[in-house]
Specification:
136 residues, 65% helix, mainly alpha
């Protein structure tokens, strides 16, 4: 979505860093070792998914950021973008466990609650931030 909205590399780096922090908080709350995400299954997948137009999830985000609806986007992609379903599961579990995940919550609000992307971005930029790093 950020790419479609025309944001720059600094914004992309911030989003990736904060996404990694959210992943770590979520994993830690479930009893996993957050350091696991420093490998290919974490950082590697995150970077690829968020930067390659060959990624189905990237294509979904770009289409949504370009103003298409989720339904239009999924029909256009024509393949399963696992992030859409994963987001629903992660959001529900994070809420149950009280895990601070503003990016996941913002994406959920856009995809499933019809929230305006601009308003969600504004709330993310002005909301309280926990920490960029959760590895201890």
């Amino acid at each position: 979505m950020a790419c479609a909205l025309g944001t720059g590399n600094n914004t992309h780096a911030m989003i990736l860093t904060r996404a990694l922090a959210e992943m770590g908080r979520f994993a830690n709350k479930l009893g996993a070792n957050a350091m696991t995400f420093l490998g290919l299954a974490g950082v590697g997948d995150l970077i690829l998914t968020c930067s390659s137009d060959l990624s189905r999830n990237y294509r979904v985000g770009f289409a949504l950021g370009s103003g298409k609806t989720l339904q239009q986007t999924l029909e256009e992609v024509g393949q399963v973008a696992e992030g859409v379903n994963t987001l629903q599961i992660v959001k529900k579990k994070a809420d149950e466990l009280g895990v601070y995940m503003p990016l996941a919550s913002g994406l959920y609000a856009i995809l499933f609650e019809g929230q305006d992307i601009g308003r969600v971005v504004q709330s993310l930029m002005t909301g309280a931030m926990a920490s960029d790093v959760e590895f201890q």
